[in-house]
Amino acid sequence: MDNLREGIQNHIIELQLEIDNIFARGRNSVVSEVTVGQIYGGMRGLVALACNTSYVDPYSGLYIGKYTTNEFSDKLPEEIFFLLSTGKFPDKESLADFQNDLNKRAKVPQYTWDVLRSLPKDTHPMTMLSLGILSMENESVFKKEYRKGLQKADYWKYTLEDAMNILAKLPELAAGIYRIRFGDGNLISYDSNLNWSGNLAHMLGVNNDEGFADLMRLYLVLHCDHEGGNVSAFTSRVVNSALSDLYYAVSAGLNGLAGPLHGLANQECLRFILKIHDKFGDDPDEEVLRAYILDVLNSGKVIPGYGHAVLRVTDPRFTAFMKFGEANCANNHCFKIAKKLFSVVPDILMHYKEGKVANPWPNVDAMSGSLLHNYGLNEFDFYTVLFGVSRVMGFCAQNILALGLGQPIIRPKSVTNKWVIDKFDEN
Ligand code: FAM
């Protein structure tokens, strides 16, 4: 992985130069004001973090580095990790070198399986994933080197070692969790001739169809990162900023992803589609669908898969999944219903309660579950694990770069109600 290490080193130098320039133009310039509403409202919209791995534009969606979703959605996850952490796609030789390195580190230790197999049978797969990563913390190279006395400038290098060890083991770990939790508990062996996502598809043992392997590739690419302020990425960075090693930080980020307002939302979408299928069959009439959506809204519920905190257009990741569905499973009943919802829901949400829904368009979750279901991956509780496997790439890249740039421990200031009241009285 020499090329990856060199790529990151160069990227850190470039980013540091940019930051030096920014500071020269005004280190104390004000870019954002904090309202009382934001203090009590989850800091929504507050500009308070720098993250150079990815950016979400309200109108053009997710960028990884300088590339739009359309420009990276046909790549391999390995290429995406390279892009997240170096700002560039790898050439052929760098990609092969990186993949060889992952192959060498792929084996999950026996003690991790012992931990996972000792859990109650109905443990949530996200608990198993988080615990699986944490169980390997004793292997942290960063931790060992730090104890010996590590220079600050080298923190990122040993964090990269940890990242490689974690990323390499994720396909075997995630697939093993699936087979222990939902299958007969027998694990399928890693195949070093396959790539990262190909191995995940193979070891899950759900479907040998090439389309399924390609769906795993696309799924792992599209969920890789979403800026630095979302619950899981931010949590992971906060934990790592205390120099807790990457095993702690990745496990912590996954714990955030496991929440129903974050990564767990995707399973709700498929549940919604299956409910529509149960009620109205394979090909519901648009008018019937429209009436049903209004009923759901009038009962005070949200339409899963629609709306977004940042986006104001159809999520390009939804569009990429839709394109995949058209090419691979156009006649699948869930896909057809998801597609029909796309032609009905935005118009309803646009006019709902005088336009209070800021974004009536579909997000990434509106389509992904239908595609997984098409290939026989029907266990909803596992979907967030796939999201997690992908998102770990973002956690790792964000932490490596932040350490490379010497970012300090994160410690925003909190205040009491009294402090806020006194502030009002002062003004
Ligand atoms: N159906 C019904 N009402 C909706 C709605 C939807 N899909 N999306 C937003 N609204 C309502 C929202 O509940 C709020 O109503 P109240 O003022 O009564 O609370 C109002 O519209 C304004 O909300 P907003 O500013 O448009 O959205 P937020 O930024 O507050 O929330 C979401 C964004 C994604 C939480 C919200 O759109 C939602 O609940 N969507 C459905 C669930 C979903 O798809 N979640 C997955 C999100 C995905 F991108 C992810 O992170 N994995």
UniProtKB/TrEMBL annotation:
PROSITE patterns found in the cross-reference section: CITRATE_SYNTHASE (PS00480)
One Gene Ontology MF term: citrate synthase activity
Annotated metabolic or biological route of this protein: Carbohydrate metabolism; tricarboxylic acid cycle; isocitrate from oxaloacetate: step 1/2
Keyword vocabulary terms for this entry: Acyltransferase, Transferase
Matches recorded under Gene3D superfamilies: Citrate Synthase, domain 1, Cytochrome P450-Terp, domain 2
Assigned EC number: 2.3.3.16
InterPro entries: Citrate_synth-like_lrg_a-sub, Citrate_synth-like_sm_a-sub, Citrate_synthase, Citrate_synthase_AS, Citrate_synthase_sf
A GO BP entry: tricarboxylic acid cycle
Superkingdom, natural source: Bacteria
Top enzyme class: transferase
Family annotation (Pfam families): Citrate_synt
Family statement drawn from the similarity comment of this UniProt entry: Belongs to the citrate synthase family.
Name of the protein in its database record: citrate synthase (unknown stereospecificity)
Source species of the chain: Labilibaculum euxinus
